[in-house]
């Protein structure tokens, strides 16, 4: 029988992570999918990457409620801990939610929990990262294309003699399948066109690890012998740039990024970071919410996901695969500002007014 998870189950999870739980609906049936008030769990991976709590979560919740006014939403963040996310999955499965939107901390480790949900008749929508196990649907961006965009931008910034120059690669967490895709896409562009002096995989996408790794690369290669930095996301770019500055590397080499975090956009305006990859979170969240509501109501997911992705068991499932966009100082206005992602006022704080004028933002 379904029980309201507002009490014991969520209380245990709240001891180790922040959990926001919408009011439990009344009149739910005993089996998943049979209630009058569908319940959807949104399980996020960490608070290290700003997008999850500042962009994806509010956008997902808003769209879910627009599509399903009587739906209730449970939210939990695993804070980068696989064991915590597994406990959260167990909790929402036990409570009998109608659908789960999952961004796995570790795609491989969460496969067993996804299987457990499927066995309980609860569809899992894998969001942004492709989880192992029998997921019911998938929503994300083309990860390899993200890497290709980053690689091409880096080569362009380095100029025509890039082949004689040297870069450092600051890749993401290898347990994240997206990080693997970004790296694969980047290498397809960079290999043979530039020397890769050092390459690092960054556990949990942590900025401080990127800082330490970049400091090690500078010590090994020399402060004047790094002509470019492939950073897989904006957090890794921030750590890399901080290390370069602390080690008196000037001028800064071009540095890539991803996620279009506000700090990163400001670094681009200031000339400290060369580019970021803009993945419009609105369309991704809209697709994720639509798929979650369809799954909770037991309507065909193929009506939402026209693409296909093959799960780890080998079964093709409906997917929505969106197109990422490369953003440099010259294109901020026509992408991020035009889409309403940020306003000029948000980007052009007082210390950046002159730089914003130079880039045509004001």
Quick overview:
With 362 residues, the chain is of the alpha/beta class. The protein has 13 helices and 13 strands. The chain has helices spanning 8-14, 51-67, 82-95, 111-119, 143-158, 177-190, 207-221, 234-246, 262-270, 281-297, 333-337, 344-347, 353-358; strands at 19-21, 39-44, 72-77, 99-102, 124-127, 137-141, 166-171, 195-201, 228-231, 275-278, 307-310, 316-322, 325-328.
Range of helix content: 40-55%
Rough outline = globular
Query: What is the end-to-end distance?
Result: 59 Å
Number of helices: 13
Structural class: alpha/beta
Arithmetic mean pLDDT = 90
Major sheet: order of its strands?
1-3-2-4-5-6-12-11
CATH homologous superfamily of the largest domain? Response regulator
Structure notes:
- The protein is α/β, with parallel strands linked by helices and 362 residues long.
- It has 2 domains: 8-141 and 280-322, Response regulator (Rossmann fold); 143-278 and 325-358, Rossmann fold.
- It has 13 helices and 13 strands.
- It has helices spanning 8-14, 51-67, 82-95, 111-119, 143-158, 177-190, 207-221, 234-246, 262-270, 281-297, 333-337, 344-347, 353-358; strands at 19-21, 39-44, 72-77, 99-102, 124-127, 137-141, 166-171, 195-201, 228-231, 275-278, 307-310, 316-322, 325-328.
- The strands form 3 sheets. An 8-stranded mixed sheet has the order 1-3-2-4-5-6-12-11, with helices on both faces. A 3-stranded parallel sheet has the order 8-7-9, sandwiched between helices.
- Helix 2 (51-67) crosses helix 10.
- The longest helix has 17 residues, at 51-67.
- The N and C termini lie far apart (59 Å).
């Amino acid at each position: 029988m379904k029980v309201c998870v507002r009490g014991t189950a969520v209380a245990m999870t709240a001891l180790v992570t922040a959990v926001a739980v919408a009011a439990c609906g009344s009149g739910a049936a005993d089996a998943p999918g049979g209630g009058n008030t569908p319940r959807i769990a949104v399980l996020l991976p960490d608070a290290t990457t700003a997008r999850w709590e500042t962009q994806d979560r509010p956008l997902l919740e808003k769209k879910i409620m627009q599509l399903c006014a009587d739906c209730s939403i449970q939210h939990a963040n695993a804070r980068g801990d696989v064991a915590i996310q597994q406990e959260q999955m167990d909790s929402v499965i036990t409570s009998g939610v109608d659908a789960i939107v999952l961004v796995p901390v570790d795609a491989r480790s969460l496969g067993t929990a996804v299987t457990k949900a499927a066995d309980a008749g609860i569809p899992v929508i894998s969001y942004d990262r492709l989880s192992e196990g029998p997921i019911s649907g998938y929503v994300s961006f083309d990860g390899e294309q993200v890497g290709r965009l980053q690689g091409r931008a880096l080569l362009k910034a380095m100029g025509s003699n890039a082949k004689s120059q040297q870069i450092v690669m600051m890749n993401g967490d290898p347990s994240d399948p997206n990080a693997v895709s970004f790296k694969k896409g980047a290498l397809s562009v960079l290999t043979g066109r530039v020397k890769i002096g050092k390459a690092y995989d960054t556990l949990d996408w942590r900025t401080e690890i990127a800082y330490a790794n970049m400091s090690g690369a500078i010590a090994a290669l020399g402060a004047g012998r790094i002509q470019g930095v492939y950073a897989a996301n904006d957090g890794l770019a921030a750590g890399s740039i901080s290390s370069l500055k602390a080690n008196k590397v000037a001028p800064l080499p071009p540095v890539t990024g991803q996620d279009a975090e506000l700090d990163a956009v400001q670094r681009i305006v200031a000339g400290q970071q060369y580019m970021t990859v803009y993945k419009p979170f609105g369309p991704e969240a809209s697709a994720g919410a639509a798929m979650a509501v369809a799954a909770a109501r037991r309507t065909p997911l193929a009506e939402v996901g026209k693409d296909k992705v093959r799960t780890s068991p080998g079964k093709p499932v409906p997917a929505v695969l969106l197109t990422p966009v490369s953003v440099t100082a010259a294109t901020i206005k026509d992408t991020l500002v035009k889409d309403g992602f940020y306003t000029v006022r948000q980007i052009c704080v007082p210390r950046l007014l002159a730089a914003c004028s130079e880039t045509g933002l004001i």
